[in-house]
Specification:
It contains 4 helices and 3 strands. The chain is of the alpha+beta class. It has one domain: Arc Repressor Mutant, subunit A. The radius of gyration is 16 Å and the shape is globular. 14% of the residues are buried.
Length: 107
């Protein structure tokens, strides 16, 4: 069975998402910059403010990049808040805060 591609409203075919590594290279610097500020943030707030593209698998890859940043020592969990993503109905999401390593990486 072949998958059909839903055209956009203007009739063109949507651009297929990049592979994970290409997408990661695009979004990574934005999260490092956010972490270097020392302010608390959510994944969506950074993606929305910087108009970041969706990953190939949005349901898994947004969380994966946050855990990768945490595992690499750039961010740490800061708490919880209600999501401001329009489609989540204000469900709870983790907030993050940059570490000293993030401030050094941005310097």
């Amino acid at each position: 069975m072949t998958a059909t591609v839903q055209p956009t409203l203007d009739g063109t075919a949507p651009t297929p998402p990049a592979d994970y590594e290409t997408w990661l290279a695009t979004v990574w610097p934005h999260f490092i910059t956010a972490a270097a500020t020392g302010r608390t943030f959510t994944c969506y707030s950074i993606a929305d403010a910087n108009r970041l593209p969706d990953p190939p698998n949005p349901r898994a890859h947004w969380g994966r990049v946050m855990h990768q940043l945490r595992d690499d020592g750039y961010i740490r969990p800061a708490g919880w808040t209600c999501s401001d993503r329009p489609t989540t109905r204000h469900s709870g999401v983790r907030t993050w805060k940059g570490t000293a390593a993030a401030r050094r990486a941005a310097a």
